[in-house]
TrEMBL record:
Highest taxon of the lineage: Bacteria
Any GO MF annotation of the entry: oxidoreductase activity
Family annotation (InterPro entries): NAD(P)-bd_dom_sf, SDR_fam
Keyword Oxidoreductase: yes
Keywords assigned by UniProt, alphabetized: Oxidoreductase
Protein name: SDR family oxidoreductase
Claim: Chaperone is one of the keywords in the record: no
Source organism per UniProt: Novosphingobium olei
Membrane-crossing residue ranges in chain numbering: none
Length: 263
């Protein structure tokens, strides 16, 4: 798909990190971008800086997401591109020793359910609602109507200790991709996911300020190049997935060849 001013894109989590890099890349290529984010202050600021539209959206709420798409489409037309980066979750081990109680504490079903709503269910919600809108578009070359890019993680394949929810649910995001791509093949909508490794997003840069030795160790753990990923590198892959019409049904690692150890 050629990216220009005729293409509308929605990016979730677009106020920072990988979402912001995706929004910047798409806007820089000429697309009309709408940022969905729960952080209104940052979202408005980033949107103003890159010439995008901002809509406050809670990805865990069907009503909020539906309203968000309505607002985005009213401003910029029906999107042909969705990049879903936003997520919310809780972390913890399946069982962790509680020293005060002298017993094991379980990662609760409630915490797992909360995480499922913030990762896997939200990914299906955003992708399926966007696809429903894309289905109304006139097809482009090869009958293409749209492109959906979900954000998984290398944790989907080698999650670490304490990532029971994160790892399994990001694996679920990868699991959405092929069946959804097949479901949507007759409509002309492609679906892929990106599995980022360790990227220099605001939470990781906070580690650099708080514990520089740990940050240096993280950089050294990447085979090559020996550094954290740069958000624009994620944005670059987002553009390629839009532009290259033969990318479909793929789960792509973007990680400097890292394979995460147990801890």
């Amino acid at each position: 798909m050629k990216i220009d001013s005729s293409v509308s894109a929605v990016v979730t989590g677009g106020s920072s990190g990988l979402g912001r890099a995706s929004a910047e890349a798409l806007a820089g290529a000429g697309a009309k971008v709408t940022i969905f984010d729960i952080n209104e202050d940052w979202g408005q600021k980033v949107a103003a800086e890159i010439g995008a539209t901002f809509v406050k959206v809670d990805i865990t709420s069907e009503e909020s997401v539906v309203a968000g798409f309505e607002a985005a489409r009213a401003a910029n037309g029906q999107e042909r591109v969705l990049v879903h980066c936003a997520a919310t979750m809780k972390g913890g081990k399946t069982l962790a020793w509680d020293r005060e109680k002298g017993a094991y504490k379980r990662f609760s079903t409630e915490d797992y359910t909360y995480s499922a709503h913030g990762v896997l269910i939200a990914s299906y919600r955003l992708a399926s609602l966007s696809a429903l809108g894309m289905a109304s578009l006139e097809p482009l070359e090869d009958g293409e109507r749209g492109v959906i890019t979900l954000t998984a993680s290398v944790a989907a394949q080698d999650a670490q200790i304490g990532q029971i929810a994160y790892g399994s649910l990001k694996a679920g995001v990868n699991g959405l991709v092929l069946p959804m791509a097949r479901d949507l093949m007759d409509i002309g909508i492609r679906v892929n996911s990106i599995m980022p490794g360790i990227f220099a997003t605001p939470p990781m840069l906070a580690v650099k300020d708080r514990a520089p030795a740990i940050f240096e160790g993280l950089e050294a753990s990447v085979p090559f190049p020996k550094r954290l990923g740069r958000p624009p590198e994620f944005g670059s892959l987002v553009l390629e997935l839009v532009r290259n019409g033969y990318f479909n049904g793929q789960n792509l690692r973007l990680d400097g060849a890292i394979r995460m150890p147990p801890k």
